Fold this sequence. Notes:
Layout: E1 8-9, E2 26-30, H1 34-44, E3 49-53, H2 56-61, E4 70-74, H3 82-92, E5 97-102, H4 105-112, H5 114-124, E6 132-134, H6 139-150
Parallel strand pairs: 2-3, 2-4, 4-5, 5-6
Antiparallel strand pairs: 1-3
Amino acid sequence: MMATTPPMRESHDTSKSTSNSSRKKRILVVDDERDITDSIRSALKAQYWVDVGGSSSQTLSSYRPGFYDLILLDYRMPTIDGFAFYQQIKGIDPKVKVCFITAYEELHSKILNLQWQNKVNSIFQEDTTLPVLKKPFDTATLLAMISRLLGE
């Protein structure tokens, strides 16, 4: 099922300080499967500011550079796939961290394969790893990955 709305915002109190040390880290979840985004939002909302984008093209068009600390990005989506989305986001927001989420074993294996990493690195000029979570994953695994990526 594909949602066609731009990122949905959780209700957040903006009257509090927004300094980097005191504000909740902001995470954008981009996946066309509503049940996945709802599950991730539920698991993270107590600790993080969570926005959801169901359509990669609409999410990309409404994206605000510098706003998010991390993007959880599905690989296989209609209109714009995860790698194309990744490349475009990194072009406008090079500092944002990205973690792929995928149910596709082939992609998961390729991302973990060093030769594939080298090819991806040369294309996207990235560090030596692209984080990936293979669906299905549990909340503890998700939280551990996020904590590692955000340096918490």
